[in-house]
Amino acid sequence: MNVLGIETSCDETSVAVISNGKLKANLISSQDFHAEYGGVIPELSSRAHLQIILPLLKKALSIAGIQKDEIDLISVTAGPGLIGALLVGLSFAKGLAFSLDVPFVPVNHIEGHIFSGFLMDDKPEFPYLSLVVSGGHTLLLLVEDDMKIIKLGSTIDDAVGEAFDKVAKLLGFEYPGGPLIQKFAEQGNPEKIKFPVAKLKSKYDFSFSGLKTAVLRYVQSVQKENPQLDDEMKSNIAASFQKAVIDALVLKLNAALQEFEVKSISLVGGVAANQSLRKAIQNLGENYKKKVVIPDLTFCGDNAAMIAYRGLKLYESGLRFTFDATAYARLPQDAFQTF
Questions:
Q1: Residues sharing a CB contact under 8 Å with residue 234, sequence separation 6 or more, in sequence order
Q2: Does the global pTM surpass 0.85?
């Protein structure tokens, strides 16, 4: 079976092909021009998707070595994400599926991330704990099988990636801020500043708003005497902030490992590209003697390979979809059971 995956939820246009279970192509076109605005501009994102999606499809099919009429299944991100960006991919996928008379599968973007570890040679084993960390989401999930996902906890305010970007802006870094936080943190002392880790009544929920505010207050106090932060100060703030984030994530994951009997741990989402976080999760897995699966960097960010894979699994499970599917289909609250 040849599965076409399409992803346009934010500022990456991606097209992938999975043939007979093997990934043959996964092209990603990033919209780097958003950096000059300090964040993603939805209207510009939608227009960029429109311009590149067809050329990207043609190139992906060429790399995969198949023709358009050899596509057997089309899978596309249907939400969550930017509504205009989603509609570009969703409309394109519907039109193509209709013209080729092949099945169409709308995929929840977060479900794509959750199962992105299965794109690796060494795959997660059910049941496993999935920690989803991205610009818009922070989730701790118990994944029992392909079709049963139990939400243990989520952020009650800011997502991890959002906190990274906001702190990066406080430090004067360009967008996206995550890579620069990591770069400066490598030169800083993570013990220099004691930023808080939120304590919540809910066992598995997260909160990063207080941490973000604590960084703001610290930066403001320093700037009273030194308006311009030097690189050493930026590095120490970045390292201390990053440590607080990782401590918060590891704390909840550690609690879940003590309560649930699982075979694997999977760290997924854009923030999973952070090397210090990857190392911390690997260390946690070693302590509990659990397999840890973290996707390669290509599959941490938004990509169509994970959408193609998830679409295939949904189709194989017996689910069928009509063309009246709208953006934001299968939202997390609909797709996940709550613990």
A1: 171, 172, 184, 188
A2: yes
